[in-house]
Structure prediction request, 351 residues.
Amino acid sequence: MNPYREQEIVEILNSNEPEILNSLLQAAHNTRIKQLGKEVYLRGLIEFSNYCPRNCLYCGLRKSNEKIHRYRLDEEIIIELAMMAYNMGFQSIALQSGEIDSQEQVDFLAAIVEKIILSSKQRSHQSLGVTLSVGELSYQQYLQLWQAGAHRYLLRIETSDPVLFKKIHPPSQLYDRRLECLDALKDIGYQVGTGIMVGLPGQSNEQLAQDLTFFQKRDIDMLGLGPYIPHSDTPLARVPDRHERDVFTLTLKMLALARLAMPDINMVASTALQSINPLGLRWGLMAGANIIMPVLTPEEKRSDYSLYDNKEQKSMEEITAEVEAGGFKLGYWKWGDSPHYFQRREELKQG
Ligand code: 5AD
Ligand code: SF4
Prediction:
């Protein structure tokens, strides 16, 4: 239940009062501690390919960006990285790439997921948890990856406003298609995550308030919400923004409001948030985030996975220090699933 109506949310987002911000963050923090405790769960992020057939106007991986060097990691490297995450006690990985656009690539990914689960199961009773984020696929392909053992999927809606969605995507990329994908993922049984970018050119606080309503209506299990950061080699970076705003604070407010509205979902302190402020990780957690995705992509490929400019890369030592400085605790050796998912499934069973 959202403690605020949309109009109140707009007022909070519009406000420059430090007291309003402080009490919002405090309330979100209290809710998080009560519902989820102090633990912060890890998803080792493996960005296994930066090829993408899409042309989102904001993203550095877009097909038309000829300035980046494209790569695909080999199967052995991906499995090695996954097992490294496992040995570090992460217990979950996230496999991410530009959008997959062939059955051959789905087969490749499904085989890898199976192998990762098998290898990790041989070492302990609980395998690695596998989250995927590889774009819009068919129902059958999502099902294939689920049957291979993946159980969480992230597909951001980017903005819940169909008009703004149209402005930041080429005409071939459809808002309704993304909704269909989110429906398919839920129907198959995945823990479903979506999210948006905060501070897009032309995005209003009313639209952000509607994004929160969208997440609730969709009954999501996971949220990935981060600031929009212009990438100099994309068309959207050349679009001037009329709003002069503090995107960092706006993102923290959105995280806190999301935590209050959806107390038991998993919420990530995004790399983008960490990239625009040196204290982004700590503040993200203090605003209610309970998931971190440390990047495990090989060092020499990381700069090629350039969704936006100046992407932050924190070491595990830095992450640990930040988490502890905020009074939180890293949840090693646990899947750290979204409690909301189990509640939702239980309700579904009971009809
Ligand atoms: N700024 C912030 N986030 C971005 N993403 C892509 N480009 C940008 C950008 N310029 C995010 C999108 C996408 C995810 C893979 O990365 O939300 O869903
Ligand atoms: Fe491709 Fe995703 Fe970037 Fe769009 S946001 S260009 S689908 S990687």
